[in-house]
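Quick start: read one record
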Amino acid sequence: MFNFIKNTFVSVILLYKNFFHWNINKILISIWSNILSFLVALPFLILLFFVSYLFGIDIKWLFNTLLNHNLSSNLFVNIAFIFISFVFILVYTYKYILISKINLDYLKWKKTKLLKNYYYKPKILKKFILLNLLNIWLFLSLTIIFALVFVILYYVFWWIEWIQAYLWEWFKNIFSILSLLLFICYIVSFIYLIFRIIFSYFVLIENKWKKITVFDCFSKSFSLTKWYTKFLKFFSLIVIFGIFFIPSFITISFFETNMSNIDQYFAYKYGIVEEKRDDINSQSLNLMFSSYSKDELTNLYKEYSIYVLLINIFNYLVFFWMYPMILASFYKKELLKNNKNT
């Protein structure tokens, strides 16, 4: 177990040995992913505006609605907005293929030349989208199954007349307990399913020149991740490396809470809102900020904003996209190695 964790730490250290290359690629991939998503979604946007124009929908109103990400009273516009957003997000997640390719190359002690990266080819993008759709279908199927079980429970415990008449309170408690257990089972199943299918993307990356289908990637991931011990190892890694995020999370929460308190104090003290709201604890706010002048509080708010910005920059440079390397390391050093040994 110790060697397993140690190997993962060694893999993560590779990110910091290639610190500038890693962060430059993170920025470029993020930019590229946004551009690619927009280009794929653009034909659907043009079609939406064209159809809206034909049906007399105000184009300026439609543009503002889409720009502000607001749903409207027009069913057609809402469906089109959801569909276009889905297409954008579906393509945008392609960035994880690109960053995973870079991480796998780090594990081979080489650096990816981004501009020559074959993963920009439409053929790979098409397979990635199909793989995403297959995985989404699996999650929807899982959700539907659990929803149907819940509906059956609801029907049994709430609509059968003799249960309501004779054993109402007892069955009511049982229904609550079973509903909670069902929800817990759903969450565990959801997380476990993520574990079983997430490595299908690495199979796609590793078999770049082979005629591999989406179903091959999917079945290979399921084959590599069988046995619950692998899931427990993987889950332990997520928890261990999650500890590194706790200090920055607590620090940011501290500053953001104080910034929110200052906002509330300004609203209460200086009449930014017309009435004193019930959710503002004026007594505690006075205890915290009554000794400060308005200018001092303004400067304090600016300082906190700067601290939050600096911590976010630090997190982006040091921790952001660290988990894809953990996945890549687990895939190469744990799943593939054990698969060869069996």
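The chain has 15 helices and no strands.
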